[in-house]
Amino acid sequence: MSPELPTPGSVRSAAEVNEQIRALWLRAGGTLSAQERAEYELLVVQWAAAIRGEVIEAA
Question: CB within 8 A of 53, min separation 6: which ones?
Answer without folding.
Answer: 11
